[in-house]
Amino acid sequence: MKKHAVSAADLADRLSLPAQALGELKLTVTGDQQILVENHRGLELVTQELIELKRNKGRLRLYGTGLLIAAASKAQLLVSGKLERIEWE
Amino acid sequence: MGNAAYRLGTVRVRLRSAEPTLLLDEALRRGLRAREIVSEDACSLSLSLPERDLPSLEALCTARNAELAVLRRSGGRESLRRARRNAALLIALAAVALLLSLSSLFLWDIEAEGTETVSRGELLRALEECGVREGAFWPALDAEAVRSGVLLRLPQLGWMTLNVRSSRAVVLARDRQPVPARLREQGPAEIVAARDGLIVRCDIRSGRPLVSPGQVVAAGETLVSGRLESLCGETRLVRAEGSFLAETERELTAVCPLESEVEQAPRFAFARVGLIAGKRRLYFDFGSSRTLDGYDRIERTYKIAIKGVFSLPVSLVIERWEPRVLPSAPDAAAERARLESDLRALLPGELRSAQSAAEEKNGLLILRLQARCLEEIALYQEIEREGFP
Known about the structure:
Chain A is mainly beta.
């Protein structure tokens, strides 16, 4: 029997559900000053130039200057600062 | 993101460990919330969290061998804690505010100026008798009743008003204006001599003259009669008017001591401070055994008040006690000259000539001054109208 790897995004698409309902990362970016990250899986690194987060598969890196986490909880992060680049891995 | 928890109390902490981000991540996964997470260096993070989450973070740090330092506390619980610490101060402030507001209902400062005929002391005494005294409850005062009471007690006053503002009373008073003499002196009168004397000059404007210049008159003698007889034999009363300048003799005597005790004045001046509450004085005197004989007191009083607005019933008084400068024994010649000058000042009219004689008796200097003066001796005497038209 052949196994098919189905991503959360594919599954959500097939089930007509929002991707974040299945734990996919959701980003809300406001200009280059603020970004709200929902459904993250944990913090990896926090510096003023880089904030690295875990997600379901891989990592999310937020590059910038003067970065700080304005608010944090188990599933949400609000990052402030001068945001320069978002990198997915 | 759960602001209510922060309002109850927020604490700012610094996490130090080899992997502060992993420690923070673990804390977040355990349900802790955090704000303003700033990386200070590779080994430390500072963050704010609700105060109630601090014990959990402390436990986690202890378990992970991390260092946790509290940097600052703020918010409701901390404010409450500070308020409790300052409860005594708050109560004291409230008590002072209450006392101030109650104090403004009582009179603590009475500003009254005397007039030409009534001294400040007399006015204050009359006010006190009418209820206007320090410590009086001013809302109970009736300004109209006070005014009537004071004017009744001091007939020299023609007008008075009492204004109370906060704990300060301002009293304004004016003298009664005398009735003009011409209006009062309208009845029939004759002129008599006020003193013995030799008439030098007279000016008769009304009435029947009975004496002439060069004549010597005795005190009480009628100079101008107010009774005029007509050709028909009827007597008519008029008001005699005129002036009589006469040369009179005066003898005045004055006495003053020629000896006085000269004491050794105390050497040092000193000051003392006290409080005046109403009419009571409390001194902070650390040398109370000191005798105050031979000292002059110079007192300065400072009202604890906002000028023109209100004042408290307490005043600060600073007394300075200066050694009294005692007079030396008087010089007889100087004393005689002084007495003679004083006596001459008492003489009425124009001085024609004067002779003085001095004698020393029992340590006293007695000076007699005999003088001839040119003075007005006319004295008006009312005539009864009974039996006359």
